[in-house]
Amino acid sequence: MKLHYREIKSFFYSQYFSDGLRISLGILVPSLVLSFLGQFNLGISLSLGALCVSVVDTPGPVVYKRNAMAVTNLCMFLSAVATGFARLNVYTLGAEIAIITFLFSMLTVYGTRAAAIGTGSLLMMVFMIEKATPPSQVLSYSLTVTAGGVWYMLFSVLFFSIRPYRAAQQALGESIMDVVKFLHIKADFYLPGTDIDDNYRKLVSQQIQVSQHQDNVREILFKSRVLVKESTNASRVLVLSFIDLVDLFEQIMATHYDYAEIRKRFGSTGILDEIARVLHQMAHEMENIGYAVLSNRRYAHSHDFNAELEHLKLKIDGLAEAGISNLVLKKILINLRDLNQNIHNIFNYYNSRSSKSLIDKPEEVEYSKFVTRQDYAPQIYFDNFSFSSASFKHAVRVSLACIVGFTISKTLIHGHHSYWVLLTIIVILKPGFSLSKQRNYQRLIGTIAGGIIGVLILKYIPNKDVEFILFVVLMIATYSFTRYNYVVSVIFMTPYVFLLFKFLGVTQISLVEERIVDTLVGSAIGFITIYLVFPTWEFEQVQENLEQVIYANTNYLARIAETITGKPVSITDYKLARKDIYVKSANLSAIFERMTSEPKSKQKKVKEIHKFVVLNHILSSYLANLSQSISDKNLHKTQPENIRLIRKSIAVLNESDKKLHGKPVEFTSDKVEMPTEKKELTADEALLKEQLGFVNKISYDIARVTDEILG
What we know:
Number of helices: 28
Distance between the termini: 52 Å
Strand content: under 5%
Order of helices and strands: HHHHHHHHHHHHHHHHHHHHHHHHHHHH
């Protein structure tokens, strides 16, 4: 019960609720203020512009949000003017819909934020279709709604200016919570009752969430010059805490072993249950820190795991005395100690009251290299005018679907809000089949469930004051859940829309039926379009992702090899290679998840790709483990076989990458100093050799599965 209570409180401290509150205020304030001044219609127009611009107000650096909202205001104005004049004739309106939907849908070539600009502009087009504006007033009305968009932009920027660090703090807290879930899943591998294959699926799915949240934090922190360059306590705490969080995630990745084998060897000793218990306790400690970050409070007490780790060490030593090899368990113990240290680092950074000790960081990292920069060159837009481009096919689908929806709404549906058909199509259609299918189902379920709730509210709650309170609550909930859980967002959105129309003077219960029918029609058109009109299947893109993942792993292994051979590797290069692995692995896992929701006939080589995803995770984990083992750079001086094993692994991975039309990673063996002296292996050297041997084996397994996928 306490855990559920904390989860609920965490939501109210999160970015999701903060975004919902900000968006709701930005949309609602113009209408409320102007209604008191007797200009309710003007307020509604301003709120409409604010609603369209709010689509772009997604997490990220303030300057990027501001620029995107400014561009949205311009595009929204052009869309409003074009639609306002085109709607005077049904044929010119049809042509305008086809052209505008195509042009704005093509903005997906510039990434998600640009795609949001297109969506906001198309929303304005949809709202203008049913707006009976005389030609002489089209320009002035377009300026009015644009003024609403400008208001929202200024309000949003002011909102973040008041608390400049809060968004980054919330993103960091949410990222910590994702790592906590990942650690709980990793801990379950040590429990005998856990199904290993099923747990891998959970782990891979959670890794996607971890990667996405870490990318959000990187964008907010490292693209914001203020946060990176300021030497204030708040900015340094956020940056250093995130750096240690990524290091901590690597520690969790490094606690990967052949779980079936260690269960077989140590299952009867009880030591694995102890390891799982300590890992779960560490996860709970991280959760306490994450909650403190989210709630903007200091975490007064940090649990010291040294006693538990010392107790675990005694048990591991006891196994050696009983004649059982404990090298792997010692390595796990080292990982746990490193994990404990990183937890303490994050705790100490976050609870530091002085910036003096935080300003000088011994490892200087070029933060700007850790974020990608979107190229907005116009040539990219026009270069994608080809059926080989997924963005082009998506734009064609949206345009055709909107034309069909517009035609049906004008000929077969005779409601007063038939533009809901177009609205549904624009919202549910995504570049990929699986995302469109998911959004389609969520929209349908949410609209039907929300419609039932809306009928109950309209029928049984006649009190205007109560209705207004419900309206505000539903509005905040709608925008709070949009990114968190879309189906819940739509459930809240539907009664919120019904109450809005009641306040505007439309009180018929038939409005509910019309909303559901229009949503059903729009969903049907969208589903048929995504399935039949130039469909994009995940298998068509998976080869590129396989190549990127293999290259990232090979590059990381090469950096480790350079460290072993004594060649200096900068902290930035090492961490960039590590980040590349996690991002590319998460992208591949996301593609595989989307592939499983596609029609069975389109799921080509799905079993082989699943094998690849699991093997890639194992390889990435072992490389993280290996990077911890070679912190002592003298290890290479005793065993040249280690270099040979690495060289073989790189060669095998390069060969697989070549088959996928990728470029090989260079690792020059002539720079390796091969010692002539041969000594007896120490325990650490033996474990290192064992790890390299396993990396080599996994590399060959990946090569075999790659051949099966390409076969």
